[in-house]
Design goal:
Helices cover about 70% and strands about 0% of the residues. The protein has one domain. The chain has about 160 residues and is mostly helical.
Length: about 160
């Protein structure tokens, strides 16, 4: 059961990574620099140079995407393990609350070197939208996976 929950969290995390990366892309595109918020994530490994890369640069952009995907998948597993039996509205509420806690941790409590980086480029509202996109995608995928599992409740 725990192995299934981990797999469920990884799948949901992968989709949530795509959704949140899509939000980052769009906020960057509106500014005329579609990859700037995504590239900023790479600062955790390559340093402040990542903040100045606004276009596709494989060493920066791919590093950022790997970090982002790994981080979101890890959070997906943590959340799936925290709420293994929730479904529907309770699952959505729990995931949104977890996402809010992750937002607070990653943007306020972690040292600068471990923060996502995109919070230095986007407005606080836009950063909130990125985390909300993460939460919605994660909750939708966890719910979908639980509906399809053999132990799903009837009517879910």
């Amino acid at each position: 059961m725990r192995r299934q929950t981990v797999r469920e969290g990884l799948r949901a995390g992968f989709v949530a990574a795509a959704a949140s990366a899509g939000a980052l892309w769009e906020f960057g595109r509106v500014r005329g620099q579609a990859l700037e918020p995504i590239n900023a994530i790479a600062h955790t490994l390559i340093g402040s140079r990542a903040f100045f890369v606004t276009q596709w640069q494989p060493s920066v952009t791919l590093t950022a995407l790997v970090i982002h995907t790994a981080s979101v998948c890890a959070w997906g597993v943590v959340i799936a393990l925290l709420v293994p039996k929730l479904r529907g509205g309770r699952l959505l509420l729990a995931v949104v609350l977890c996402s809010a806690a992750i937002y607070a941790l990653e943007t306020n409590l972690l040292p600068e070197s471990l923060r996502p980086g995109f919070e230095r480029i986007l407005t606080p509202r836009e950063v909130g939208v990125v985390y909300f996109a993460f939460a919605l995608a994660l909750a939708a995928m966890l719910h979908h996976g639980r509906r399809r599992s053999p132990d799903a409740l009837p009517g879910d």
